[in-house]
Amino acid sequence: MAVIPPDEARAALAGVKVLDLSNFLAAPMSAMFLADFGADVIKVERPGSGDEVRYWGENKNGVGLYFKVLNRGKRAITLDLRTPFGQEAVKRLVADMDVVVENYRSGTLEKWGLGYDTLKRINPGLVMMRVTGFGQTGPYRERPGFGTLAEAFAGYAQISGYPDQPPLLPGFGLADSTTGLMAAFLAMVALHHKRSTGEGQYVDLAIYETLLTLIGPHVINYDQLGMIQERSGSRLPFTAPRNTYQTRDGKWLAIAGSAQSTFVRICEVLEVPGLVDDPRFADNRQRLKHVHDLDQALQQAVGRFDLDDLLARSADLQSTMAPVNNVEQILADPQVQARENIATVHDEELDAPLRMQNVVGRLSASPGAIRAPGPALGRHNREILIERLGYTEADLQRAGIELAD
Predict the structure, then answer these.
(1) DSSP labels, 226-238
(2) Residue 150: which of 111, 182, 114, 122 has the closest Cα?
(3) 23-40 burial string, b = 16+ CB within 10 Å, else e?
(4) Out of 36, 40, 51, 176, which one is annotated catalytic?
(5) Is 176 a known active-site residue?
(6) Strand 59-60 and strand 63-64: pairing?
(7) How large is the average pLDDT for residues 229-252?
(8) Average pLDDT of 370-396?
(9) pTM (two decimals)
């Protein structure tokens, strides 16, 4: 299903103007979330090469696929911010912007004459979202930082994996993605402040900080009890059962029993009522003390059923079980299809329909939508630089900026 909004004016962020100077994943994703809900986002890339994400991962006909997702709904122009022309063009654009998103190393934009103090003089109401590895302050502020480093630094890797094996990093950009979510939220917080006071501000966000907060009760447990959480596979230190189990037909099932009533229903589905009466498993704290025995008993029970049988039984009894899906299974799932969690949009660069994750969350009055996949490099140079800012083709040629056909 294509999700081009029939009425742009109904979009929740219609009229919000965003200048995306960022590259890679975290900061561009924050601008993607804003574009999903109707913000007018202009993405600035280096002439010739563009955002490095264009060359990440898989491609089709030389066109990077993940770029299409991260930069959906945006217009793309090329400027070299190291040059006077690029700096002047950014300043012209900033005069009419609500938000600027950037993720250069601390001090880089200041070196180019594009720091917040300079841009605020042009546009006092400007909100500037600054995403860096370690933030704008502190002894690490000048260090390069990526999501992988943040996942280690924030403590995620230390608790991921099994006790007798090395720490595990996630199989996707977890720190970057959570930072993108937080950056979009903080941009809206700052915009609300602006609408109340007329005052702009900059937002200083380090990539490791969101994950450090989301990761769980580490800090308070250490502070009050001296505990340091270690790796425990798919288990959690505060609730049991919580793990994955293999079914008779070789597939995998996730089970979570955070409440006593859910544990009772799990045992009912698995036809092991005796586990409920076992004093080792009488309540959550007892189950945590005997979690190894519990997992062995549950695996033995799960192994007597095929996956589809268990899922059907679980649905009938309102139990807390879910299949461990791969992406093919996700796209075929009737719940995902009914919720339209996957969108299909036409891409003019590949001249083909593309499926990607849809806008997250539904607003009843002003829903978000994907207007288009990420555009070709410099696709909107003419529209923005010539028609909007008033430069000539000769100006662009002297600056080494190409115009799309």
Answers:
(1) -------TT--SS
(2) 182
(3) bbbbbbbbbbbbbbbbbb
(4) 176
(5) yes
(6) antiparallel
(7) 95
(8) 97
(9) 0.94
